[in-house]
């Protein structure tokens, strides 16, 4: 049996910071409304998916003490590829100089957790190390005159190295789901802008994320009390708080970066994970519960043992 462990973490963010006050200058909104309804104070914009992904990937390799040649596959979770064809993972592969395979995965904001499970599957059938990257530039598919969406989104990328180990490894359980009958709730047609039915997404998101997280915990034979850190998708602070409350996991045991970065889709979970690691919140052997939801609708959770 071949399992996985996760080694190294890196992120990338565009330099341009857009505050709530910046948005209020052109939109009928306010810092107070955005903070109260979403928990977001500022976000980064102007990112390019491939550039951010390559930088995060390089930093994850550096953090793991590895060279590009030590990796077999670049797996990019993204909702905002640079182009329809080729996959943006190919650009990243070339920019970093990784030999081997490269492919994109689109499961919207659940993409990073889906990617972790896919990476574990590749390892189980014999792959070497996989550079798993979540990178998204939602600012590029946002109508900046649409206040409902403009206040929510941001750009960023995060990456980890997924490494084969003998035995069951550190991915203790996982859960993935989708309900395509809800795809109208969150969508972007070719050449168009992101559309979202915010209220409906909110309602469904809390339910699916809690159910998925509970299933993953139960499959790992664990209770909410066993979770050292919940690393949720960062779409809205109120969704995170509602999920925490229903799961019985305190906010002190939850990674939150939405105040600084907004909703960065596939990047939000690795951005939150990296922040928790840099702030000394993830000890050796910690039990992490990663959980996300997004367009599709899709959802996914994973219970991961962290090795420092
Ligand atoms: N600034 C000021 N007012 C705004 C606003 C903005 N940016 N956007 C909407 N409003 C107004 C609405 O027009 C409405 O006015 P009305 O009462 O006069 O009709 C009022 O604020 C309340 O709007 P509502 O849509 O009920 O707010 P909400 O509490 O549901 O919050 C979202 C809106 C989008 C923040 C929230 O629904 C949400 O976060 N949904 C989920 C989003 C999500 O998770 N997306 C990503 C999935 S991966």
Structure description:
The two termini are 23 Å apart. The protein is globular, with a radius of gyration of 18 Å. It is an alpha/beta fold. The longest helix is centred in the last third of the chain and has 22 residues, at 198-219. It has ten helices and 13 strands. The chain has helices spanning 20-24, 31-38, 49-64, 88-96, 111-124, 147-150, 198-219, 237-247, 258-261, 268-278, and strands spanning 2-12, 17-19, 42-44, 73-77, 101-105, 130-137, 155-169, 171-178, 186-187, 195-196, 229-232, 287-294, 298-305. β12 (287-294) and β13 (298-305) form a beta hairpin. The protein has two domains: 2-166, Peroxisomal Thiolase, Chain A, domain 1, CATH 3.40.47; 171-305, Peroxisomal Thiolase, Chain A, domain 1, CATH 3.40.47. The strands form four sheets. Strands 1-7-6-4-5 form a five-stranded mixed beta sheet, with helices on both faces. Strands 8-13-12-11 form a four-stranded mixed beta sheet, with helices on both faces. α3 crosses α4 (88-96). Bound molecules: coenzyme A.
Write the layout of secondary structure elements.
Layout: E1 2-12, E2 17-19, H1 20-24, H2 31-38, E3 42-44, H3 49-64, E4 73-77, H4 88-96, E5 101-105, H5 111-124, E6 130-137, H6 147-150, E7 155-169, E8 171-178, E9 186-187, E10 195-196, H7 198-219, E11 229-232, H8 237-247, H9 258-261, H10 268-278, E12 287-294, E13 298-305
Bound molecules: coenzyme A.
